[in-house]
Write a structure and sequence with these properties.
heterodimer, A: alpha/beta, 23% strand, B: 321 residues, alpha/beta, Rossmann fold, 9 helices
């Protein structure tokens, strides 16, 4: 079988502060293959960004720490890698796009130079001329006229800035792209443009993508597989078809779908999930979703749910496990 | 026909900038009947927030009229405005910056009651605050908490009772759910709809997200660069959008349904919103519009295509009344 580009096994990441221990990622496992797009869906505080930062080795120093598990990037174990090794990997094998293009760019350096910086670090053989040509090519690739490479970030609109951030991320043709809510800060029409462009580039460069988002609409449009994250755990994982065209879903996933206003149906009221995400410094026993779950039973309050697998579809819920036994 | 609760006639707000006049709101006329919701939809920079603030006269209009219950309030003095301020409130987008970090939740909700002198006795104010917190589902234990102790959804549940505290009739909701997670968004939208039914509130609901206004609005106005380009009852707008911009907005919304791979690509409009400073006459969407022809440079007005459905596009098709 083909080797995955990214393999995460039973990852636990915490943030230590003076007062508390924040359990941000609690035993997440997933695999991502070449050319594939995996959507990582969850609400604020679900641990999506922490998972991505763990892969990048960019957790805040002294506070964030991976305490257990393994991450393999293109066959290389990276949790034991030194900072120098990580610097070589970042940008060339894996890159990340952050949510807010306004703060991801250096306001005092022209955008062309910011793209050139990545190339200089990872492709040392490039001559000055070659570098400049490469910058032009990459800018055109993301739909920005090469003539604007001397402009500063503030001279671009939000959508254009995000294109530049994407250009920087893809400059060295990484195998894996971590996109953390890349279009959340953009208007819908611009979002559609940027998503379309990312899709094109991804196909052209055969990059795998981990797309972090809270928007199931974006997932439906771009992803091959989907992972749903709740309180640091991946509670459901499957192909897009498994998640969208299936009634045997995790109750939380159902809740997420119920919260989205449906444009095609006239329903007047939404059916949201009651309550809030649990406090990551004080996680509940058993299933972490139990106090918001409409199907909660005694067993859910004490025992962590098993992962029930059905083909490509994985759900962590006692209810599914119960049905399985009954069959 | 009864008098609409709030109405604007050819409302304009221009800002002076070093490069010329910025046309933030440029001739918007709309009317909202008592107890209804008008959704105002548009992208960043289309002037929707300026419109909301100008209607409340938090910003002075450059031209045009604002009518409240049929009375022209455009020329009202500060003292006269103070008399009706109580009936017109606003909920801001960002629940993080619109709460005073040094006041407790109780003080925040009680402040408008004290300012408007609705109740004299301390006890009465306290009771009112408790009732309000109960209405929006905010537990009493948060009474003495400070805003930083609450999460986004709960903070928005503080902003709402603060606006309701003075028993308003009209509320401008300026992107009240944009900063929240979907599951919390749905809770707040349901709450706003319940409150409207109970108290007969009238909303001007500003958002960039068409799918959000669908549930809460009775009518929708789509704005582009300071102008209202299409206005229609909500079902009509979704079933039969006429303006190319409205169509593009609708098609750009990612729908959470799995389509066959070859159908996932959308009709994407190119380009970005153009400069609102001294815009040339004619259709402002023309530079991005797939239908644009020479006729688009002429003067445009809203035309009524069918009952209550207005559009300002030279080429919009549909039965002309």
């Amino acid at each position: 079988m083909e080797r995955p580009v990214l393999k995460i096994e039973n990852l636990y990441t915490v943030y230590r502060t003076d007062e508390s221990l924040v359990q941000a990622v609690n035993g997440a496992s997933l695999e991502l293959y070449a050319g594939e797009t995996l959507g990582l869906v969850g609400e604020t505080g679900a641990g999506k960004t922490t998972l991505a930062l763990s892969i990048m080795g960019l957790l805040p120093e002294r506070i964030g720490e991976v305490v257990a598990g393994a991450i393999e990037l293109d066959g290389v174990e990276i949790l034991s890698a030194t900072e120098a090794d990580m610097q070589l990997l970042r940008g060339s094998t894996v890159s990340m796009i952050f949510q807010d293009p306004m703060t991801a760019l250096n306001p005092t350096i022209p955008v062309g130079e910011q793209i050139g910086e990545v190339l200089r670090l990872h492709q040392e053989h490039l001559t000055r001329e070659g570098l400049s040509q490469e910058v032009d090519r990459i800018l055109e690739l993301v739909g920005i006229p090469a003539g604007r490479k001397g402009d500063y970030p503030h001279q671009f609109s939000g959508g254009m800035k995000q294109r530049i951030v994407i250009a920087i991320a893809l400059a060295c043709q990484p195998k894996l792209l971590l996109a953390d809510e890349p279009t959340t800060a953009l208007d819908v029409t611009i979002q559609a443009q940027v998503l379309d462009m990312m899709q094109d580039l991804k196909e052209k460069l055969n990059t795998s993508m981990l797309l972090i988002t809270h928007d199931l609409g974006i997932v439906a449009q771009t992803c091959d597989r989907v992972a749903i994250m709740y309180a640091g755990e991946i509670i459901e994982l499957g192909t897009a078809e498994d998640i969208f065209n299936n009634t045997r879903r995790h109750p939380y996933t159902d809740g997420l779908f119920g919260s989205i206003p449906d444009l095609t149906k006239p329903a007047r009221r939404l059916s949201p999930i009651d309550g809030l995400m649990p406090d990551p410094t004080d996680l509940p026993q058993g299933c972490k979703f139990h106090d918001r779950c409409p199907y909660c039973e005694e067993i859910c309050k004490t025992q962590a749910p098993p992962a029930v697998r059905e083909g490509t579809h994985l759900v962590c819920c006692h209810r599914m496990a119960g049905e399985e036994e009954a069959l | 026909m009864s008098v609409p609760l709030i109405e604007t006639r050819n409302l304009k707000k221009y800002f002076r900038t070093p490069k010329g006049m910025l046309h933030a709101v440029d001739g918007v006329s709309l009317a909202i009947p008592q107890g209804k919701t008008l959704g105002v939809v548009g992208e960043s920079g289309c002037g929707k927030s300026t419109l909301g603030r100008t209607i409340l006269r938090l910003i002075e209009p450059t031209q045009g009229q604002i009518l409240y219950q049929g009375e022209d309030i455009t020329g009202f003095t500060g003292r006269q405005m103070a008399g009706i301020r109580r009936e017109m409130q606003i909920i801001f987008q960002d629940p993080f910056s619109s709460l005073n970090p040094r006041m407790t939740i109780r003080e925040i909700i009680a402040e408008p009651i004290r300012v408007c002198q609705l109740y004299e006795k301390k006890k009465e104010i306290e009771q009112k605050v408790s009732r309000l917190m109960e209405t929006v589902g905010l537990a009493n234990r948060f009474e003495n908490a400070y805003p930083h102790e609450l999460d986004g959804g709960r903070r928005q549940r503080v902003v709402i009772p603060r606006a309701l505290a003075v028993e308003p009739r009209f509320i401008v909701c300026d992107e009240p759910v944009s900063a929240l997670d979907v599951s919390i968004q749905a809770q707040i939208l349901n709450l706003l709809m319940d409150l409207q039914e109970e108290m007969g509130l009238t909303y001007l609901f500003i958002t960039h997200d068409l799918s959000v206004v669908k549930h809460i609005s009775s009518e929708i106005a789509v704005m582009y660069l300071g102008q209202c380009v299409e206005k229609a009852p909500v079902e009509e707008l979704f079933a039969n959008p006429l303006h190319p911009y409205t169509k593009a907005l609708l098609s750009a919304i990612p729908v959470p349904q799995l389509l066959p791979r070859d159908q996932r690509r959308k009709n994407i409009i190119r380009g970005e919103i153009t400069n609102p400073i001294e815009p040339p006459p004619g259709c402002r969407f023309a530079s991005r519009c797939p239908l644009a022809k020479e006729g688009c440079a002429g003067e445009l007005t809203l035309r009524e295509m069918s009952a209550g459905h207005f559009v300002s596009c030279a080429f919009a098709e549909g039965g002309v009344l």
